């Protein structure tokens, strides 16, 4: 089974490498004896992320999530990075392809399938719903320091 590589880590950052998108299928996520998800890897904990979680997943042609799921408090953003397929929320089926982005509220009953001929590659970011406010738009501070490489 493939493993995440930590590239560098210090007090204020962590950098990882999960490998090529074409190699995502080598990851296997086991959520229990009856829920084994090939091609999926969660990365937030490895990075030490404290405000969100994210996963990368590759669906082989003809495969799907295989179950519907909801969340108690987490909203999710799904970014489709390659391939094509369908995303289902509350019974509504939406076509997705490279460049598609879908936001789902916690109560949305969701699932994904690849009905294409190439791998469907997806980045999913989950975070607590309702925590980003208008005040957060001004969170960044541009520093006067010169960037030196």
- What would CATH call the architecture? Sandwich
- As for the CATH topology, it is Jelly Rolls
Count the strands? 12
Note the main sheet: 5 strands, antiparallel
Q: Structural class, from secondary structure content?
A: mainly beta
| CATH top level assignment | Mainly Beta
User: How many angstroms does the end-to-end distance come to?
Assistant: 36 Å
Strand order of the largest sheet: 5-6-12-7-10
Q: Averaging pLDDT over every residue, what do you get? A: 94
Helix content: under 10%
Low-confidence residue ranges:
none
- Taken as a percent bin, the fraction of beta residues is over 45%
Could you please describe the fold and organization of this structure?
It is a single chain. This protein has 149 residues and is an all-beta fold. The protein has one domain (5-130): Sandwich (Jelly Rolls), CATH 2.60.120.10. 3% of the residues lie in helices and 46% in strands. The chain has a 5-stranded antiparallel beta sheet. A hairpin with a 2-residue loop joins strand 8 and strand 9. It is globular, with a radius of gyration of 17 Å. The termini are far apart.
Features:
3-stranded antiparallel sheet, Jelly Rolls, 12 strands, 5-stranded antiparallel sheet, 3% helix, mainly beta, single chain
How would the blueprint of this fold be written?
Blueprint: E1 5-10, E2 13-17, E3 28-32, E4 35-38, E5 40-42, H1 44-47, E6 53-59, E7 74-82, E8 84-89, E9 92-97, E10 101-104, E11 110-113, E12 120-128
Antiparallel strand pairs: 1-2, 3-4, 5-6, 6-12, 7-10, 7-12, 8-9, 8-11
């Amino acid at each position: 089974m493939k493993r995440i590589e930590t590239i560098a880590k210090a007090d204020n950052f962590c950098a990882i490498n999960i490998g090529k998108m074409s190699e995502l299928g080598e990851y296997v996520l086991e959520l229990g004896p009856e829920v084994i998800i090939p091609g999926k890897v969660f990365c937030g904990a490895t990075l030490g992320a404290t405000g969100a979680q994210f996963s990368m997943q590759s669906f082989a042609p003809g495969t799907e999530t295989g179950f519907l799921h909801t969340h108690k408090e987490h909203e999710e953003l799904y970014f489709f990075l390659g391939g094509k397929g369908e995303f289902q929320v509350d019974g509504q089926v939406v076509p997705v392809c490279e460049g598609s982005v879908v936001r789902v509220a916690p109560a949305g009953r969701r699932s994904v399938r690849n009905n294409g001929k190439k791998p469907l590659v997806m980045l999913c970011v989950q975070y607590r719903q309702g925590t980003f406010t208008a005040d957060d738009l001004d969170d960044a501070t541009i520093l006067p320091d010169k960037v030196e490489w």
